[in-house]
Design brief:
two-stranded antiparallel sheet, binds adenosine-5'-triphosphate, globular, 11% strand, alpha+beta, protein serine/threonine kinase activity, EC 2.7.11.1, GTPase binding, serine/threonine-protein kinase, transferase
């Protein structure tokens, strides 16, 4: 057991190293910047400890024989058909499988973009259900907002990212169209978005096992974007409306309109214009415009809270879910947190894991938030670790820019709540 504790490549080692790292980085009196921050940090460590206790209680024997942790291999999608547009091929390094649709093909598929086929409306686009000549069901995203230049920029930016993304938990782009407008054509996700199922008017279709599946799959998709995709991608708009569900409730991350590639050597990206969705913003994003992996982790934490509670990130009274949930998370009041429509029909071990993961992901200081590779371990627990392959790609733990900045700065919970309220006022004042 002692030997395993020392081994940072074992699952137990990874988690214990995290706890040790948190303890040494956060609660020593020398580097604690204020009393309140120290209290805040102790709370985060105690969240990790709670998780760890849970882990220890159930899996001590099996853990000893676990193989080192590996990242599952992602199957590559096979090519469908050569793109018909050499220009787009050259400029955007298109996947060879993407189709260039004519306007008349898209009109035929969507009943001339009829209202009956309108299945989604976002800030930038209208999305129509369609059926291609070969019978394939599609979602056609027609960019509607902004000047011609803004539409082109938005289209190219989303296309440039989504065309490089290929994972079971990301939306599947089939092709695009640039005749008579800007169109992106995706495989249809028949159940629509997680947001529409969680908050829609239909009877509750999402039992706990489906919600847990959605949480796991979304974490896998986001891990892929951050760490396993050809480019390092920050999504920047993770929310329930941007998680689509296939017929068997497999989640697919969609809407790469705000996504950013971060070159390896960049610590972070800075933005001056606020884009995204209020209620999901990480504090370092609205305070400093910082975009990196940890800003997505925060949004993912809010998404987990939505899944647990069935509440919106910001409700009709403009109350923030994070502010509502924080005291309940801190006191581990699971019964008060859980969506009343679930009753007691949930697996308490799974819900404990999801609640603790959410608590960590919404920590105001990015350094206290886990990375997506840690989130996947936290959410899946020992069942996942037991299935891990022998391959272990050791990665040096590099701190993200926002971790460095927030660590260096005194940022306590009173300031955080003040900032959150201030930004809420700004967001809703126009
Ligand atoms: N492939 C798809 N299958 C089914 N429904 C989809 C698909 N793609 C999008 N939708 C629906 O359309 C909605 C809007 O899509 P999307 O988020 O891509 O648009 P947007 O204008 O970029 O939105 P936002 O304002 O969030 O940026 C989604 O929430 C979803 O309900």
């Amino acid at each position: 057991m002692e030997k395993e504790k020392q081994d940072v490549s074992s699952p137990r080692g990874v988690l214990e190293a995290c706890v040790r790292e948190f303890e040494s980085e956060t609660v020593t009196p020398e580097n604690s910047t204020s009393e309140s921050e120290s209290r805040l940090n102790s709370r985060a460590v105690s969240h990790w400890r709670k998780f760890f206790k849970l882990w220890n209680k159930r899996s001590i024997k099996r853990l000893a024989s676990f193989p080192p942790l590996g990242v599952p291999k992602i199957p590559r999608r096979k090519s469908r058909k050569e793109s018909e547009s050499p220009l787009l091929n050259n400029i955007y390094n298109f996947k060879s499988s993407l189709v260039n649709f004519t306007l008349s093909e898209l009109q035929t598929a969507t009943g001339n973009f009829s209202d009956e086929n309108l299945i989604g409306k976002g800030g930038y686009a209208k999305v129509y259900k369609g059926c291609l000549r070969n019978g394939q069901l599609v979602a056609v995203k027609r960019l509607t907002k902004g000047t011609a230049d803004e539409k082109t920029a938005g289209f190219l930016s989303e296309l440039g990212i989504i065309a490089h993304v290929d994972h079971p938990n990301t939306a599947k782009l089939i092709g695009c169209g640039i005749e008579g407008g800007m169109y992106l054509v995706f495989q249809l996700s028949t159940l629509g978005s997680l947001g529409s199922l969680l908050h829609g008017s239909k009877d509750n279709e999402l039992d706990w096992s489906k919600r847990y599946k959605v949480a796991l799959g979304t974490a896998d998709g986001l891990l892929y974007l951050h760490e396993n995709c050809k480019k390092r991608i920050i999504h920047r708009d993770i929310k329930a409306d941007n998680i689509l569900l296939t017929q068997d409730y497999e989640p697919q991350i969609c809407d790469f309109g705000l996504a950013k590639w971060l070159p390896e050597q960049w610590t972070h990206h800075n933005v001056s214009k606020f884009e995204g969705t209020f209620g999901y913003f990480a504090p370092e994003y609205f305070m400093h415009g910082i975009v990196d992996e940890k800003t997505d982790v925060y949004s993912f934490g809010v998404l987990l809270l939505e899944i647990i509670t069935g509440r919106r990130a910001v409700d009709h009274l403009q109350q923030s879910l994070v502010i509502w949930a924080k005291p309940l998370l801190d006191s581990n009041s699971i019964k008060e947190l859980v969506d009343p429509s679930l009753g007691e029909n949930y697996n308490s071990e799974e819900i404990d894991r999801v609640v603790l993961t959410a608590s960590l992901c919404i920590e105001q200081s990015p350094i206290l938030r886990p990375r997506m590779s840690q989130v996947v371990i936290l959410l899946r627990g020992d069942e996942y670790v037991a299935e891990c392959t022998k391959e272990y790609r050791e990665k040096t733990i590099q701190r993200t820019y926002s971790e460095e900045l927030l660590d260096a700065e005194e940022y306590n919970s009173t300031r955080y709540l003040n900032d959150l309220n201030r930004h809420k006022q700004v967001a809703f004042s126009s």
